Amino acid sequence: MDTYTIQLEIKSSITSKIKKINIAKGEVKTIKSLLDLGLRHEEQIKILKNLQDEIIALQSSQLATQLDGCIKCGGAMAKKGFNTSDFHSVFTDHKVKTQRQVCNGCGWRNIPSVKALFGTSSHPDLIKLQCETGAEHTYRDAQIILNKQSLVKRKINNHEQIHHVIEKVGEYIGQTIEQNIIIPETKAKELTVQIDGGHLKSKAPDTRSFEAMAGVIYRPENILKAKNKRGKIISKHCAASALSDNQEYMIKSVLVAAKKQGLSSTTNITALCDGADNCWNIANALQSHCASLLGILDWFHVAMKFQNISLPKTQKKRLETVKWCLWHGNVDKAIDKINTLIEKVKNISRLAKLTKLKNYIVNNKDYIVDYDLRKNNNLAFTSNMAESTVESLINQRCKGHQHMRWTRDGAHKLLQIRSYITSNDWSDGWLDKIMGAMYKSSPLTI
């Protein structure tokens, strides 16, 4: 039976001598099933660990951890053995040797470690994977997924550590949202803005829930339409916030997202909102940055308001005429008809629902358009034409389990990473964000 040997060759830059180190060896199995083809997962991880250990051992001497003088008294420093510290790669954990020192004068000790040098003992590639997995799954599920990939239970992949990483990176993304905005070469003639909100269960004992806001900005031509399905937006930028700050952060992040999509003083914006005042406030904040802004009450939300009103057959038909009037932009006529309907309804529960619907229509009167006309002219009139912003940014991750509860700050930081990933900024910008969030300034480069 054939055998294999995997070796690492190290060539000295001084003597040009070559040292060979065996990383792994074994027999080339006869293929009896697909199981025998190539190396097993465990074998691959072992090879990777052995290879990393040897390379790290070579690099350890380059960690300039020795001090010329004591930082306390200025006395001479003497070598005092080695310190062994942790270093966590993507799939494997390692030990790194660093030189310890002691002051001959006052006895102060210099005990350097990877974490002391760089601010963390985790490689950026591992933190990237933790961010992506933690942003998509619960922290406990992310722990399980990452440990399965490594084939071992790793402390560095503990759900609390993943939570810590998400909060650090999410906070940094939020702090640097206005930095290094890449403006596309072509200005957008038109932009569509969708703004919506979703409620999350609160950890606070005196609060049942709080609202998180989400927005997506895209060029209309970037909707990839599918028959009888919601279209996919192939280029977009997202914004999200769970802060209680009178929409200050959300307004800022929506503006940044719009600029990334090519917003200019000549751009015409169509804003689709669910009818809440905070949504309109965010959309209207773009007014001074564009040529025109048309606010439209999202038909998807209008239609939803009619669904939960149960009426007798005759009254149901009258309610349908109210909806028909709204669909054609006849707001005053719709209000007259719903007033007539309210006069005829005696049931308290039905009356309350109809009154609520009427107030919704009246409060958003200025944002109701001829939806039929816009649909026939292939113009935006509903968020239902494309993927749901709230569903993709908030609900899929933050409301997946009944027991899931959040603080505003924790939800906000998570949403920054989800927005950054969904905006397709992550592939080019993840390293800058992770380095800025997790690593301290150092003369060494990771």
Domain module tally: 3
Distance between the termini: 43 Å
Q: Enumerate the strands of the largest sheet in spatial order, edge to edge or round the barrel.
A: 10-7-6-11-12
Task: Let me know the largest β-sheet.
Answer: 5 strands, mixed
The topology string of helices and strands comes to EEHEEEHHHHEEEEEHEHEHHHHHHHH
Description:
By secondary structure, this protein is α+β, with helices and mostly antiparallel strands. The protein folds into three domains: 3-118, no CATH class; 124-177 and 427-438, no CATH class; 190-422. It contains 15 helices and twelve strands. Strands 10-7-6-11-12 form a five-stranded mixed sheet. Strands 3-4-5 form a three-stranded antiparallel sheet. Strand 4 and strand 5 (109-110) form a beta hairpin. Helix 3 (124-136) crosses helix 15 and helix 4 (139-150) packs across helix 5 (159-175). The longest helix has 19 residues, at 41-59. The protein is elongated, with a radius of gyration of 30 Å. It starts with a strand and ends in an 8-residue tail after the last helix. The model is unreliable at 442-446 (pLDDT under 50).
What attributes characterize this protein structure?
446 residues; 3 domains; five-stranded mixed beta sheet; 15 helices; 12 strands
